[in-house]
Design brief:
metal ion binding (chains A, B, C, D, E, F), HpcH-HpaI_aldolase (chains A, B, C, D, E, F), 253 residues, alpha/beta, aldehyde-lyase activity (chains A, B, C, D, E, F), 8 strands, TIM Barrel, metal-binding (chains A, B, C, D, E, F), lyase (chains A, B, C, D, E, F), globular, 13 helices, homohexamer, eight-stranded parallel beta barrel
Chain lengths: 253, 253, 253, 253, 253, 253
């Protein structure tokens, strides 16, 4: 078993991450074949819960795309279930303290490096019987830094040894800084915070993921040092394209 | 109860139809809010069967969009079930003879105009208790003309009184004429056949629907006389946009 | 394996049948515990297809209630699937000729009495390995008589040896006779037709089922000779009670 | 976006709430059309989890009925997911302290008034792109007061500024007071506690919801000052009506 | 796109087919990784319908196993849907005449070799955009010979040019010959019929599939000339192993 | 209502528990009929979440098998939901302290013995209206002892009065003790720990459950004093049997 993301990052290449909000293995299979390096099932603001996510993971496994999940909240139960289901990385929202970061990181590691419970039901089927021996090195844990509080605690959070890195949520970060939430922000206060997180995390030897809406902004973030960049989501792409199609037709009348 | 499509057609306006291949009420709700005049659940080449289609119909009912279905095959059971479920029109594939056209049309009409069985379980909930009195006038039946055989029988098929009109499937039509199947065809043989169907059906006082991939081609068809034009499908839009996004990112590296 | 309906009918007792339109095993379990002699999953005008019906059948099997299904149309595939899934009887809509009746009856019987294909996947699990030996005697097939055409062919239809009996659909029968479709009809033309079917079928040694909306009307039908009477449906009961509750509250303001 | 409940309460009118325990969009659509002011998906003692609830919410959105949810437990993850899914209010069980009330209230408000994470995936689709600007004023948070402990802390709980109000669970309240749990209780100890909560909350400028089984009892509660009254549940209505129907039939034999 | 079954058969190797009766992508993924050459979703006597089968197909596509389906009945709609969904072969039950065989074979071929409708929604995603060009040569159609009537018509059925071959259903064949249905039959009358079908089909240049319960019997059939042999089914394996485990425990008490 | 497990244990008989990882009511029905004393739905390392578990519970209720669940984590919400859904016992993973044990035990008992919230939606349907009166005595709570930390706290944990007993997870226990995780362990360090738990718990008057893979090992554990022994799981049985079948076929070539 190899997590291709880790490999790419080790070679200095930023990876492209797709975002799955649609709770359907049918659309997931189409997404998986589009060529993303990884796909993240968003179980916080997306529309799939565990059972639907399981079907999505099977769909992703029809390709070499790396499966990740953003869990709804810092909850050991769902973190471990998504790992057992075959995710090679977890993004955890709203990690605001070193204690939360440590709890999250621990849930992603088997003893003695953490407290993950043994029983990799789908992971062992997909990655082989020795999955458990390699999981601690291959599974990625990314804590979301998206509040002023988390910004304050950044150094401490980055000091959690078993935490792989951080993931930047620009909307909540903006809201927390008193700026209207939007994607691909240009407000100096927000851009500065994002830049600070990327630089600090990279300096601390941690990985950084960043949420964006366009390949251009993603490139900008990769150039700043982001290891993983997300662009858009399946549901947003569908929505935007459908609306543009209808609008184009109306314009022709 | 009013079928807004019929109203628009009576006023000489072509309507824009969206196409649903994804078996998910979550994506259907996004499609329904994009502004199409109607949405057709494709139960032939799309991915939803009855149970999934039911959820899609509920999603469409959150908006004034008119729900239609393309059934998998000429089968009275599924034609009637989709009408009971609230579809205001049915597109039936591969109608190649006047007998088939008559069987299909009859399945869409209550006695004495047809043989539809009474029991509009969801339709009566959504459209009111007197649904059954208006259904015969509001429900649209469109027979697909998509083979050389059907072209030969076109006049006879158009002579079926209770049939509302025809729907052109350009891919199968092309295949049947010995041309490679593709959308928005420009091959003279296929364009000629399409034009012939639109003109003949219109002259016979029947409605015509046409399957296209772009608003431009749809406009061309509407100008030829098509009453309803379909553009793309949810799954194709998602696929194309996802692939374009990945490609754009790769281009920036 | 015993079909308790057959037993009751043989002892001269009419049985009470519930009607399931809701595609949910959760509501089915509640229905099953309410004490009906049998429950029929309505796959024609109800909202469940095969997969949902399977869950409903499991729910019914938590009690001694006898499971039946009304199939969407005369189609051997679904008739046999519902029997394999454990239904002890099938109601088939719109049987209008002796040929249709014979096809339907044959689909419910193993060779040499019919053409049912062997493979009782759930039925053998639930009723035992020797299910197939008893199925031909325990499974009930009821052909719906609900058109003027079927009325004309009644004697011939009743002559089909392997057909267990008929089931009266008063709404379609009314429509077919030019009367507005409604439940528990009092129009002489419809009542007369119903009475004729019950008397003729009984005289021919066949079983008769009848669709009603109230216990009172059901009793009237049982007194006329109906062996099985259906009262209401789960969805109608929910709808009526919810509406009455809201209305009662509004009245108190 | 407007939460019609808030509007009604501001005008001094008590609202009628329906209760959804059945995990089905099919029954939800019937419930939604029955005329309740709001419908609450019960994810604690009802049978739907997130994925099923999503379908129910879509069904409710076919009407102007206001959607609410009772979450299984005080858990930020599910509170925020249900809001993102379009609920305009959350009922949280077993809130026994001011800390719990504050955590709950905070989860229902965006910064700076709370800690709700941004990403209103379905809410923005349904209520518009500016949903997030209005959500803090339109979303209702009701903490359940259902233990002796909570009664003791009532004043402190009511002092939580961002909490909209309380919801009374009479069964657990009774159990906690040493009385057998039942709906529409008449035991003085329980009635007294209920009255105390309604009066105290109203005096503190908070909203009060109350769980009942009959319109009459609901009226009594509204007269005491309850802003929102729940009557029955879909599953109970189905169960009661089915049992009554069978009993009526048995009585006619 | 290559159908590995065709390749193996051309090289003279019999292939091992697994049988899927469980409507779950979770179990299908486990089955797919067990090493079968192909897996057939049984939509006739198994428990999955179209929507569940779609998830099973995705699960199979995580491996090189070839996906097939047995359809519920000779119905063009479902034959074509399963091909569009990615099945590389269809087994059709109860083919008793040359007309039925021809209808079935035609449904599996695009014009001009047949009447399959164009729209390979999942097949083109999985196998590539030129799927349609290769489908006619790669898709396998196997007609079930399982009645005395079909035995009589065997030569004529084998004469249908576009039919790939036949599949032997020993249980129904036995029933039809007046023998108790069971798997791996030894009754001379049945063995003789099976041998006759294998020899005749092979001589006619057609492929032969055979349903068995044990590897030993399957080997016997392969030695007789069967190209594809099915052994057991997922549900039977689970049932047998569970029963054996319980029995073993009881024996230890 | 009677929990047959409690009855058996009181009579000194160890009970056999089956393990359900497959999220399907179809396979659950087969498991339920295999004769296990109880079946546990594994919601931690298995593949079902609440909604799927609900269908599994209905399937189990077609037999006298006692339904249990292992919840994903110590979370009052899911513990209570599974009890409301009809489970007669809960296994809770990773209970490492007396506080955690007390929280878990309390969630399984109604006041005054605990803090379980009232609303036994399915339990009351299945077990009767007086379920709540008997639940405190019939519902079993088993805390998993599977870490070195829990071993240290064993006496304190066993001192929690309302806790019914403990359940031993040998894989995590091994990992925690620095031994490779596997089933039916023979490493002295692990066997010693298991023996210690069984003896200590039994001496403290608590019940003990143990996870094994074979009837032989289960017997060994029962002889040591285990009240409930689990053998294998549905998914493992399917996987092992499928792999063995393919291997056997390959060996015959």
């Amino acid at each position: 078993m190899k997590n291709h993301l880790v490999e790419s990052w080790n070679e200095g290449r930023s990876t492209l991450n797709g975002w799955i909000a649609i709770p359907s293995s049918a659309t997931a299979e189409v997404m998986a074949r589009a060529g993303w390096d990884s796909l993240t099932i968003d179980m916080q603001h997306g529309l799939a819960d565990y059972q639907a996510a399981l079907g999505v993971l099977t769909a992703i496994s029809t390709t070499p795309t790396v499966p990740l999940a953003r869990v709804p909240w810092l909850d050991e139960g769902i973190v471990m279930r998504m790992l057992d289901a075959g995710c090679l990385g977890i993004i955890c929202p709203m990690v605001n303290s070193v204690d939360e970061a440590a709890r999250f990181a621990s849930a992603c590691r088997y003893a003695p490096r953490g407290s993950r419970s043994y029983g990799p039901v789908r992971a062992a089927t997909v990655y082989g019987a020795d999955y458990w021996k390699q999981a601690n090195d291959q599974v990625v844990s990314l804590a979301m830094i998206e509040t002023a509080e988390a910004l304050d605690q950044l150094d401490a959070i980055l000091g959690v040894e078993e935490l792989s890195g951080v993931y930047i949520g620009p909307s909540d970060l903006a809201l927390s800084l008193g700026v209207a939430p939007r994607f691909d922000p240009d407000e100096p206060k927000v851009v500065e915070a994002i830049t600070h997180i990327i630089k600090t995390a990279t300096a601390a030897g941690k990985r950084v993921g960043m949420h964006t809406m366009t390949p251009e902004y993603a490139k900008r973030m990769a150039d700043l040092g982001a290891d993983l960049v997300t662009v858009g989501s399946d549901l947003r792409m569908l929505k935007a394209t459908a609306e543009a199609t209808v609008e184009q037709w109306r314009g022709l009348q």
